[in-house]
Specification:
Layout: H1 11-52, H2 59-67, H3 72-84, H4 88-101, H5 105-122, H6 125-138, H7 143-155, H8 159-171, H9 177-189, H10 195-205, H11 212-222, H12 240-245, H13 256-261, H14 272-282, E1 287-295, E2 301-302, E3 318-326
Length: 335
């Protein structure tokens, strides 16, 4: 019987078999790549047509940009100029055209990422999450796309999905402990839990993100609870606006200057604005404090307090700036 299988022990026959297998694998890989690219292109075309029908760019300009010999990178730069100037609708329209022209994986990743950012800044949150998901399909470890996807889920109050994205970032070595604590705190804040349950859960997260102490203060006031029962009291810098407008008095040396400015004690004051307010009140002048809110990262200014900057998305970057102003007399306002 060995006589019939002797050719299988021939080294030349073994090499022929090996090269045949390698050739077969190469051919299959080639056809798989061709069909894969074709499916990807069809998928992108469907994706573009889904959103392009709502484009605010004139159809003749869309056709012109599609037919002109302009590559996707140049269109991406043009769209970026519109995005930086705040014209997100035009930026989105051009990014969609660029996506149709993109051939390389890197080009598609770049356009998907910036298209998602444009949708996010324009306020189309659900669309932005769809775009970032498409971007992640191209590159599952794209940290920028994952970060913005988590932000989109957070804005949509899909906190569990946001936490899943943060876990994926954590596995890649990105420091997200503060963001995880904040997302969990938002979920607690917007839940139907009883007051005591909320406070207990907030307390467990306070070490990871110190502004959770402000959330605790807000929760006590919203539920008409005694704020002096708070175990983890917030820093004055992070809640001076709340305490100034609230009628209650939070006990502690850190808060004495504020209440001295309001005329509720005689403690010495080192802060310029608080001292100015106290002097004005001592001289029977109609003065009060107004507050502005500035991001320490991008210097954007807002009329209300924020935990996360709406412009640069930095967490915990809000600086509360008190200013002494003349108190308006509501009786003198003409309605």
């Amino acid at each position: 019987m060995d006589f019939f299988f002797i050719e299988y022990r021939d080294p030349i026959f073994g090499l022929i078999v090996l090269f045949s297998v390698l050739l077969l694998i190469a051919v299959l890989s080639y056809f798989w790549g061709v069909f894969s690219l074709k499916d990807q292109k069809n998928s992108i075309d469907k994706f573009v047509s889904k959103f392009q029908s709502q484009s605010q760019l004139d159809p003749k300009y869309q056709n012109m940009l599609l037919n002109l010999d302009i590559d996707s990178n140049s269109l991406g730069v043009l769209a970026g100029i519109f995005a930086r100037s705040g014209d997100f609708n035009k930026a989105i329209s051009i990014y969609l055209i660029a996506l149709k022209k993109a051939a390389k994986k890197g080009e598609k990743e770049f356009i998907f990422l910036n298209l998602g950012k444009a949708y996010l800044k324009a306020g189309f949150i659900e669309r932005s999450t769809e775009v970032f998901l498409e971007s992640i399909k191209l590159s599952t470890k794209n940290i920028d796309a994952l970060s913005h996807l988590g932000l989109g889920f957070e804005k949509l109050r899909m906190y569990q999905k946001s936490l899943e994205v943060l876990d994926a970032l954590n596995e890649q070595g990105v420091e997200v402990s503060m963001q995880i604590a904040y997302t969990k705190a938002l979920e607690i804040k917007n839940s139907n839990m009883e007051f005591s349950q909320k406070i207990a859960k907030f307390n467990k997260l306070a070490d990871e993100f110190n502004l959770i102490n402000r959330m605790i203060l807000e929760t006590y006031i919203a539920n008409n609870k005694d704020i002096n029962e708070i175990k983890l009291k917030p820093n004055l810098d992070s809640c001076i606006d709340i305490l100034y407008l609230n009628d209650g008095i939070l006990e502690g040396d850190e808060y004495k200057e504020l209440y001295s400015a309001k005329g509720q004690n005689n403690a010495p004051i080192s802060d310029f604005n608080l001292n100015l307010l106290k002097i004005a009140k001592a001289n029977n002048l109609n003065a009060t404090l107004s507050f502005s809110y500035i991001c320490n990262e991008c210097k954007s200014s807002y009329p209300l307090f924020f935990y996360r900057c709406n412009h640069c998305a930095r967490l915990g970057s809000c600086a509360i700036i008190p200013n002494v102003i003349k108190e308006s007399d509501e009786n003198s306002i003409a309605f």
